[in-house]
Amino acid sequence: MTKITDLGVVETLNGLNKKDFSSEEAVSEYLKLIEKDTKLNAYIHFNRDKSLSEAKKSDQRRSNNSSLPLEGLPIAIKDIFCVEGEKTSACSKMLENFVPDYESTVTSKLWQSGGIYIGKTSMDEFAMGSSNETSYFGEVTNPWSTDGNPLVPGGSSGGSASAVAARMAPVALGTDTGGSIRQPASFCGTVGIKPTYGRCSRWGVIAFASSLDQAGPITRSVKDSAVILQNMAGFDAMDSTSADINVPDFVNACSKSIKGMKIGIPKEYRLDNLSNDVQNVWESGIKWLKDAGAEVIDVTLPHTKYALPTYYIVAPAEASANLSRYDGVKYGHRSEDIKDLEDMYSQTRAEGFGEEVKRRILIGTYVLSAGYYDAYYLRAQKVRTKIVEDFNLAFNKCDAILTPTAPTGAFKIGEKNIDPVTMYMNDVFTVPSSLAGLPAMSIPSGLDAQGCPLGLQLIGKGFDEETIFSIGSIIEEAANFKYI
Amino acid sequence: MSLDKSTLERVAYLARIKLNNSEVDKMTEELNNIMKWIEELNEVDITNVPPMTGVSNMTLREREDKVTDGGYQDKIVNNAPEKIDNSFTVPKVIE
User: Fold this and answer.
1) pTM, two decimal places
2) Burial (CB count within 10 angstroms: exposed 0-12, middle 13-18, buried 19+), residue A81
3) Residues of A in contact with B10 (CB under 8 A)
4) Is the pLDDT score of A313 beyond 60?
5) Domain of A49: which CATH number?
6) For chain A, how many structural domains are there in total?
7) Model pLDDT, residue B62
8) Residue A228 falls inside a structural domain
9) What digits encode the pLDDT tens for the residues B28-51?
10) Facing B91 at nearest CB: one of A241, A324, A344
11) Where are the alpha helices (DSSP H) in A135-245?
């Protein structure tokens, strides 16, 4: 028999339905892997008793014939989602001992659908990073690394992507602000979708940049991704930007024909320094979609090169406001080395935040401060409008856009964390759709010269994840990607 | 527009993040590099372009003005680094 931990979401649910194994067995197999992992550092926290007791309850429901859609499915959660009674730190010293007394809407929906919590995955501190190297709990290793050549899993949802790729979870939740689901999905050879802004509730998700943050699943198949998103999405009155729009049948969309669909190829994504590997995988993708009867057309997104600098004003500005709540009073770290109130704030924040988080708070504070607001923040908001207009015009001509997910495959741990701007460049292809709030998915589509995964990104119209699932399924079938 | 050390110190004060001298030097240099790169945005013609504050074009929902939540002070102070009964505590502010 195949190992339980080799099964994806749909396969695990089938196995549970056929009574090949119980949820308790499945969960305990994953816990064994999580407990003995010394190589990847993908998980930072788990709760054996809670997970097994929930799994037993699920098996009981199943034996009473009252199964839920995700009944008994083990699910890993990025450490940015509040899970009631479980340490939730966003991988920051600031929240090292924070235990929420409430549950995020998205995780609560998954538990109500029968999903079983198996642990918290590592991430870049407060989701700020593209390599998982800013985590307070240490770097995470990409399971595609070879001996003596440790690679980053990408970030910020690096622990989630690493865990799913290494079969330490059939699915892990991530969040994506500028590429934090898609880029690690690409680096680790997994499927990752950032749904349309407003599709999944942000309530109970530790905030980074509120006009950009979205939750989504990381899995090893497009259909698995559809099954999970189906059970995460939907209107929530607790999130003022949650969209009151019906959630369509994503699973059904995975088997729809793409004949006659128009796929846009934006010329601005053909960077001069794009490697041949990435270029070749992109060309293959174009061919696969043509073979499936889609029409491939050129589109233009003229403001693409301004997306990253725009993002590095907008996201830090929002972050500086969101992270002002960490003041050492209500929860989180408080410095012991303090003279007075003022000192408590600044010393607490100096000790609690890591270097990248401080850098972004300082950028954000600077671009919002008197005398600089118009020159930076207001200008960036206007350029953001131009970026959205680019997409609107392109989507008058096509149904979806195909690009590489990232300009390279996974890089070495320590290779790019010296210069911030070099690190920021990782998100050059993922940030534009984030700024426009559009749904986008990364599908593993090939390998680079060192034998590491490369993903292709599909960007869809707002609230049209269905088209992405249809096209993504075609790419998945044609790429026939070999998971580890 | 270059960012000097005293501006950085002022920004760090506004953000309530204590930095030592070597951190101020390092952050000034790094932020300068980042801001230099961001200056690219000056190339874009933004005349008469409205600023975008969010991607959802919806207006904020209204709800009935009634209490729907509350009554759990103990949970609220649960994670406080320091508390007395159901209150947060801070260093003495008024002499």
Assistant:
1) 0.97
2) buried
3) 369
4) yes
5) 3.90.1300.10
6) 1
7) 86
8) yes
9) 999 999 999 999 999 999 999 999
10) A344
11) 158-165, 182-188, 222-232
